Amino acid sequence: ILNVEQSPQSLHVQEGDSTNFTCSFPSSNFYALHWYRWETAKSPEALFVMTLNGDEKKKGRISATLNTKEGYSYLYIKGSQPEDSATYLCASYTGNQFYFGTGTSLTVIP
Amino acid sequence: DAGVTQSPTHLIKTRGQQVTLRCSPKSGHDTVSWYQQALGQGPQFIFQYYEEEERQRGNFPDRFSGHQFPNYSSELNVNALLLGDSALYLCASAGQGHTDEQYFGPGTRLTVT
Fold first, then answer.
1. Quick check: A100 and B42 CB within 8 A?
2. Closest chain B residue by Cα to residue A39
3. Which positions ≥6 away from A90 have C-beta within 8 Å?
4. Taking CB atoms and an 8 Å cut-off, how many pairs form between chains A and B?
């Protein structure tokens, strides 16, 4: 069983603040790293799929980086808005299955 | 496009019973994966179906079985239910590659009493 860890477990920020969280995964047997946003009462929504060391992806105010050699990915949110409140999940794909972390719960306070 | 749909939304079963959960993938997707999310944990991979066959399987007992139909929809069956099977069951569809985004359904909440 692969251990994918996310930190922090939860985070409260003020509207307008920028924030970031971490996903750590074993660097062996790495194929791809997926990030998802999961709002309450909705389905998880794919944010990014990253495969190459040094990858940087951006979608609006959200961006992510990947370091496959040391086994971590950062997710950044610039100028947080209340609608960014959600749980952010990462999942490592090893070639035969996905291993998810337990998520970072973000609350943006207006 | 309806996206990924799952039924039922909620289900209550008794220990020892059997349950069938259903999933229809997003239009154009031929790969369906099932996940179990217990309280306080991340989703855990159960298995993946492609071309009506189980392609990959996670660390779940044989009580968990599945099926994929020619229209790519899928079922998850759980036999001899245990209290520990209470969880949110998520279905996700994707294209064939591991770099394809997975699209998740809203899940089925199973409670075993």
1. yes
2. B106
3. A4, A6, A23, A25, A33, A34, A35, A36, A73, A75, A100, A101
4. 56
| pLDDT given at position A2 | 73
Using a CB-CB distance cutoff of 8 angstroms, which residues of chain B are in contact with residue A101? 42
pLDDT of residue B5: 96
C-beta atoms of B99 and A51 within 8 A? yes
pLDDT at residue A94, as a whole number: 87
* Sign of the dihedral defined by the CA atoms of residues B100, B101, B105, B107, in that order: positive
**CB B113 within 8 Å of CB B15:** yes
Chain A residues closer than 8 Å to B88 by CB: none
Per CB-CB distance under 8 Å, the chain A contacts of B59 are 1
pLDDT tens, residue by residue, A28-86: 888 999 999 999 989 999 999 999 988 999 999 999 999 999 999 999 999 999 999 99
Cβ-based neighbours of A74, under 8 Å, separated by 6 or more: A20, A21, A22, A23, A64, A65
pLDDT for B4: 95
